[in-house]
Automatic annotation (TrEMBL):
The lineage of its organism: Eukaryota, Metazoa, Chordata, Craniata, Vertebrata. GO terms for cellular component: mitochondrial inner membrane. It catalyses: a quinol + 2 Fe(III)-[cytochrome c](out) = a quinone + 2 Fe(II)-[cytochrome c](out) + 2 H(+)(out). The keyword RNA-binding does not apply. Keywords: 2Fe-2S, Disulfide bond, Electron transport, Iron, Iron-sulfur, Membrane, Metal-binding, Mitochondrion, Respiratory chain, Transmembrane, Transmembrane helix, Transport. Its main location: membrane. The Rieske protein is a high potential 2Fe-2S protein. Its cofactor is [2Fe-2S] cluster. Residues 174-242 form the Rieske domain. This is Cytochrome b-c1 complex subunit Rieske, mitochondrial.
């Protein structure tokens, strides 16, 4: 029977061999491992990102003149910028010309033709209008008032104080000859036809909304903002006018 000392010696020797073998295995496993360098704040120096990724090749999407890394792209940039300016300028010129053409065609389509303009003039014989009376003619689809004024009406209208008028105009600025008053018979409020020789000033009165005009066609009372319009006309002789 083995003694206690003998058994302890055998067990110690076996245990020592096991420990040495384990140390050798661990040493071989950790031989090529580089220890991480830790800083004071706990960060390590181990790179965790992948470094074996292949960089994509975008050569198929790049212009040939900028693919050479040893060649400056400045010259290519200047040429590209000049080309862009050229295209922009050409587009602007084409756009402006097209807009001009469209506007010109639209305006010309809205304008009266030559035959219509030829019929847009009217000749009025003044000798047919008695003194103190107003006659109405049709001109360009509008009523035309031709009034043969009396000396009293002329004197009254020329003496009007301009400060009293809503649309100040002197009587002399509205006539070529004092005894003949030519205006369009269209109220400047909403386009109604005034009544001649009526109203508080004895000129024209609009029955629609109560605008009063004097014998010079100037607004004196009511909602109308402006005087009756004086169309372009001229005397072809002492007894005839041509309107238009």
């Amino acid at each position: 029977m083995m003694s206690v000392a003998a058994r302890r010696g055998a067990l110690y020797t076996s245990t020592q061999h096991t420990v040495n073998a384990s140390v050798n295995v661990v040493s071989r496993l950790t031989k090529d491992v580089v220890p991480a360098a830790a800083s004071a704040n706990g960060a390590t120096g181990v790179r965790l990102a992948h470094t074996d990724m292949k960089v994509p090749d975008f050569s198929d999407y790049r212009r040939p003149d900028v693919q050479d890394p040893n060649k400056s792209a400045h010259g290519s940039y200047e040429s590209r910028k000049a080309f862009s300016y050229l295209i922009t300028g050409a587009s602007a010129v084409i756009g402006v010309y097209s807009a001009k053409t469209v506007v010109s065609q639209f305006v010309s389509s809205m304008s009266a033709s030559a035959d219509v303009l030829a019929l847009s003039k009217i000749e009025v014989k003044l000798g047919d209008i008695p003194e103190g009376k107003n006659m109405t003619f049709k001109w360009r689809g509008k009523p035309l008032f031709v009034r043969h004024r009396t000396e009293k009406e002329i004197a009254t209208e020329e003496a009007v104080n301009m400060s009293e008028l809503r649309d100040p105009q002197h009587d002399r600025d509205r006539v070529l000859k004092p005894k003949w008053m030519i205006v369009l018979g269209v109220c400047t409020h909403l386009g109604c036809v005034p009544i001649s020789n009526a109203g508080e000033w004895g000129g024209y009165y609009c029955p629609c909304h109560g605008s009063h005009y004097d014998a010079s066609g100037r607004i004196r009372k009511g909602p109308a903002p402006l005087n009756l319009e004086v169309p372009y006309y001229e005397f072809s002789d002492d007894d005839t006018i041509v309107v238009g």
